[in-house]
Amino acid sequence: MAKAKRKTVKTGVKKTWYKVTAPKLFNSQVIGELYIENPSQAVGKKVPVNLTELTRDMRQQNINVFFKVNKVSGSKLYTEFVGFEMVPSSLKRMVRRGKRKVDYSFKAETKDGYNLRIKVIMVTIKLTNLSALSGLRKECEKNIKTMLKKMSYDRFIADLVNHRIQSKLRKILSKIYPLKICEIREMKVLSKGKGPKTEKKQRKKSD
């Protein structure tokens, strides 16, 4: 009779608590803890956080932000900002009868080469025709792309979280057709910028 193979059980493997911290933009606040054996296991892991927890502003409780672990140092896991999303239930409350909702999605690039997917929601004060809606979409994409060409990724995130981008965009687009709501409902990073390397190449070309 063949003998059954014994299962080998790992012993002595210790797990440790690692604190997950937000980027400097959010004052390196602790946003969670992970209980893991090897900190390298956490690299690439996404961590969702409600924006109110970071800003202490209750008006931002309808927004979730996403961080990704990109560095380990000692007992800390450092992250980068990779996403912004409005809570779906809050979007449903925005649209009422007699209004027109415009959802629009496009890609845009920051000054330092971050490629982003941006989704915008606009709600008109009253029902309007298709040509006006088309005009809103075109101007929305044009203006956001123009803003981003002049901004670093970090600056864009700061203005997005503080609602500066959305407020500026609403003022511009309301000249085409009055808007009740103009919000960036989602933003995510498609690819990271090259940062300083890009700047060096530009300097060599100019020399």
Describe this structure in words.
The chain is built from six helices and eight strands, in the order E-E-E-H-E-E-H-E-E-H-H-H-E-H. It is an alpha+beta fold and 207 residues long. The chain folds into two domains: 17-86, no CATH class; 94-193, Tetrahydropterin Synthase, Chain A. Strands 1, 2, 3, 4, 5, 6, 7 and 8 form an eight-stranded mixed beta sheet that branches. The chain has helices spanning 51-55, 88-92, 130-149, 153-161, 164-173, 196-206, and strands at 16-21, 30-36, 46-50, 63-73, 76-86, 101-109, 115-124, 179-191. Helix 3 (130-149) crosses helix 5.
CATH class of the largest domain: Alpha Beta
Instruction: Examine the coordinates and then state which fold CATH places here, giving the name of the CATH topology of the largest domain.
Output: Tetrahydropterin Synthase, Chain A
Q: Which residues sit in consecutive blocks of at least 5 with pLDDT less than 50?
A: 196-207
> What percentage of the residues does DSSP assign to strands (E)?
25-35%
